[in-house]
Design brief:
Number of strands: 10
Radius of gyration: 26 Å
Oligomer: single chain
Helix content: 40-55%
Strand order of the largest sheet: 2-1-3-4-6-5
Number of helices: 14
Number of domains: 3
Largest sheet: 6 strands, mixed
Mean pLDDT: 85
Distance between the termini: 31 Å
Length: about 450
């Protein structure tokens, strides 16, 4: 399940998109544009609006976004939309369309959509200020003039949605890193703000590692000019700069929706053209091969380390060692189960998890809970895998790192590939991983057991 703030943000974005599409279509319906094929025109202006909005990040607005930035976004959005709408006349050969009324339609769209966007923006700010809903709990590590400024800005500007939980003073005698980390875990803190010049290099490194391994956002109050690097994102709250260590492409709402759309369509196609006839056949062969259920459901850590029931075809005899990974020549594996594992067919029921929104087609593979506990303390950045949904296949698996973890190098390389995937996600990368996975299955893999 997505965190509350992400679910809230997603809902607002979807509502805004639907509202704008409704405005555009109502204006097109009531204005005498004289288009020849109404369904074609309404479909065209709706689809092109969504596509341009996605490319323009028109709906990606944060609590600290300024009105001038919204104006800049709107001008860019309307400019491209005007060119695309006007191209409809020549592209679909519509000589009877009134160019004057089409111009009036465009101006009306600009005015109404921008007005609604501004009203919605200030309404959300006021709603957040009054209701204190969806607040981000944060702690501050530091005690100086810059820190006081940051706390004051967040306190006086409720639209930013921050709620201070506690302030830690690094220079005090009772300051301990472990106490700070324990407080973050026990109180479900969302973000940590650190004052750079009051922490040494080792302490900063500890905070970075802790944030990576516990799914907490880490930000810096830049009172040291040397901290500025190309790996940091600079955000402004009023005039006050804050540095953030990481922003994944999948932090973008439209990228998440884009990926979810791909997952849903891909999973439905697999069900319709493959699993509809293959699942009954495999189920029968599993029953003939050994006693027990057809499917195996195991609880595994998923997005934000929340557990979910991961489905597979049963490939082992009934046993009580479900938290033990399969090994080469594992006596628990049945004869038909060995074939299913070698061809990766045993993973196909996980498309059910994809349709339920618990998994993605591509993402870090879901490990056992035992493995999470073991590698979280030994492998740097291991917990970053939970920033995204787990996948049926992943970049690490496409590169050959699958199956049993025999050496420390195996899990380190898997984590490196998972980290690269999260930081560099694109739809093209997902498609390349899917294709490479299919090629690997056809060729056969040594560690597919």
């Amino acid at each position: 399940m997505l965190p509350k703030d992400v679910r809230f943000s997603n809902s607002i974005h979807v509502i805004n998109v639907l509202l704008d599409i409704a405005i555009i279509n109502l204006l097109a319906y009531y204005l005498p544009i004289l288009f020849k094929y109404p369904i074609l025109f309404h479909s065209y202006i709706s689809i092109t609006w969504v596509v341009i909005s996605f490319r323009n990040n028109f709906y990606v607005i944060y609590p600290n976004t300024k009105v001038t930035y919204i104006l800049k976004l709107s001008v860019r959005q309307f400019l491209f939309y005007f060119l695309v709408v006007y191209a409809f006349i020549g592209f679909f050969k519509q000589p009877n369309i009134s160019r004057l009324n089409l111009g009036i339609f465009f101006v009306s769209v600009c005015a109404v959509v921008f007005f609604v966007k501004i009203i919605g923006y200030f309404s959300l700010i006021e709603y957040r200020r009054r209701s204190k809903y969806n607040l981000t709990k944060y702690i501050v590590v530091g005690d100086n003039r810059k820190v006081d400024q940051a706390i004051k800005i967040f306190k006086n500007n409720h639209q930013y949605g921050f709620q201070l939980a506690k302030q830690f003073v690094p220079n005090s005698k009772d300051f301990k890193m472990d106490n700070c980390f324990a407080y973050v875990q026990e109180n479900n803190i969302n973000e940590i703000f650190c004052s750079i010049n009051q922490l040494d290099d080792n302490q900063i490194k500890e905070f970075v590692n802790f944030a990576d391994n516990h799914l907490v956002k880490l930000k810096f109050i830049p009172d040291n000019k040397q901290i500025f690097t190309k790996f940091l994102k600079l955000e402004y709250y009023e005039y006050f700069p804050i540095l953030s260590l990481r922003e994944s492409p999948l932090d973008n709402t439209f990228n998440r929706l884009y990926k979810r759309l791909f997952d849903t369509i891909f999973a439905l196609l697999v069900f319709i053209f493959l699993l509809a006839w293959l699942m009954p056949l495999i189920g029968l062969l599993i029953k003939l091969d050994s006693k027990g259920p057809i499917y195996f459901r195991q609880n595994r850590p998923g997005f934000n380390e929340e557990g979910f029931g991961c489905y597979k075809f049963r490939t082992m005899r009934m046993n009580n060692e479900t938290e033990k990974s399969a090994t080469r020549n594992d006596p628990r594996i049945t004869r038909f189960g060995a074939f299913l594992r070698r061809t990766s067919i045993d993973e196909l029921p996980q498309f059910v998890n994809v349709l339920l929104g618990q998994m993605s087609v591509v993402g870090p593979r879901p490990h056992l809970w035992r493995q999470n506990q073991e590698y979280n303390s030994t492998v740097q950045k291991y917990m970053l895998r939970h920033y995204v949904k787990p996948g049926i296949t992943g970049l690490a698996q496409a590169k050959g790192y699958r199956g049993e973890i025999e050496t420390e190098e195996d899990i380190i390389n898997r984590t490196r590939y998972d980290f690269f995937y999260i930081e560099n996600w694109s739809m093209l990368l997902d498609l390349k991983i899917v294709i490479q996975t299919i090629v690997n299955v056809i060729k056969g893999e040594d560690k597919a057991y």
